[in-house]
Inverse folding.
């Protein structure tokens, strides 16, 4: 094998122009794989973050209706249920109890419907990250403080410290101080959410118990297991509770992501096929070009297996060089794309997503493909008859 390796290196050095072109072809194939793959993964991650990045992946609701709250579904003994949910599956990272009730927000002569969301704001921070989403002011701390979306601020020209009135569907009226404004990057949320504490929610709606749901967020690596975890929660808690997960509520998004993944894989496969065919054809020609040298080597006693190793090592070396150069090209292309394709605010249209495992995998695939492409010329070289070669030359 060592002899085959040395001869392979000599063959590659003997025609540097041809070697460079093969390496460049492999590098272009690898760079296209990395660029397309990183682009699609970045786009998918961006879509997922915008859809569920700061929201619940799974929601637990009561399946029993309560007459006293006009058919609003209340969760009994939510403290015990909260602890039970956290222990159901290790993929569950955070959970928060929520009190959701519709109300009408009035400010001066304007009014509109809002969703009053009462949180244990310390719990909610793990999922919604309100402290990072604050545009102005602070998170509600005192009773009768409310935090509104940035769209409501712009619509009504509100300021921190202004008073707004919330009116429930039962006619309860209470005045709240605007403590701050948030931006969750979702227009429908910024226009309709009025975030307050659980105590403020109880006071507004005149209830001793207000919890309507428990929202759950999974670890980032397990986001796409939401349906499986939801099924496990459903089996554990029983029919008394209704379990919703983001996948069942975003089927069109999942369909689009699946289509993107399939198209990305198809592009990468065809690029890989073209690289393999290119390497195989060039190395096959090399067998013909080096037939005289191979014939002499065989006449000197080199075995057929050693002759095959020459071209297998050529494929391996070409694959290594092409993979290294291709990874550099691919990362450079992806980085350049984020600098030229930008939004008006200067942020990339698609954020750069670098997956070390994907990049390493692309390099390994290139090397394996190069070795496989060298199999045909390797087999062909092993079948060369030294007597015929010397006689014809």
């Amino acid at each position: 094998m060592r002899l085959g390796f040395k001869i392979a290196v000599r063959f590659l050095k003997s025609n540097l122009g041809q070697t460079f072109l093969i390496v460049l072809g492999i590098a272009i194939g690898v760079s296209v794989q990395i660029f397309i793959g990183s682009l699609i993964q970045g786009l998918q991650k961006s879509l997922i973050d915008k859809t569920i990045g700061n929201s619940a992946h799974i929601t637990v609701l009561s399946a029993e209706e309560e007459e006293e709250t006009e058919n609003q579904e209340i969760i009994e003994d939510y403290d015990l249920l909260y602890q039970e949910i956290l222990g159901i599956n290790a993929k569950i990272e955070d959970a928060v109890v929520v009190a959701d009730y519709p109300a009408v927000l009035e400010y001066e002569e304007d009014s509109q419907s809002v969703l009053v969301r009462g949180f244990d704001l310390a719990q909610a921070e793990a999922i919604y990250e309100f402290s990072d989403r604050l545009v102005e002011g602070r998170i509600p701390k005192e009773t009768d403080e409310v935090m509104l979306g940035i769209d409501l601020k712009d619509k009504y020209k509100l300021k921190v410290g202004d008073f707004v009135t919330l009116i429930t569907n039962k006619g309860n009226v209470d005045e709240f101080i605007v403590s701050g404004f948030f931006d969750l990057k979702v227009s429908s949320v910024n226009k309709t959410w009025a975030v307050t504490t659980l105590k403020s929610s109880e006071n507004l709606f005149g209830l001793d118990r207000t919890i309507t749901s428990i929202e759950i967020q999974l670890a980032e690596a397990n986001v796409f297991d939401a349906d499986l975890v939801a099924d496990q929660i459903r089996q554990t808690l029983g029919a008394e509770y209704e379990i919703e997960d983001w996948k069942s509520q975003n089927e069109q998004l999942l369909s689009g992501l699946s289509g993107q993944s399939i198209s990305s894989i198809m592009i990468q496969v065809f690029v890989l096929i073209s690289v393999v065919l290119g390497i195989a054809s060039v190395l096959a020609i090399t067998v013909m070009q080096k037939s005289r040298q191979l014939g002499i080597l065989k006449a000197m006693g080199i075995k057929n297996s050693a002759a095959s190793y020459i071209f297998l090592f050529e494929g391996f070396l070409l694959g290594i060089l092409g993979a290294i150069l291709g990874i550099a090209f691919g990362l450079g292309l992806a980085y350049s794309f984020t600098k030229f394709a930008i939004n008006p605010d200067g942020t990339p249209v698609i954020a750069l997503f670098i997956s070390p495992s994907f990049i390493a995998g692309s390099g390994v695939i290139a090397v394996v493909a190069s070795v496989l492409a060298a199999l045909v010329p390797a087999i062909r070289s092993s079948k060369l008859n030294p007597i015929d070669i010397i006689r014809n030359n």
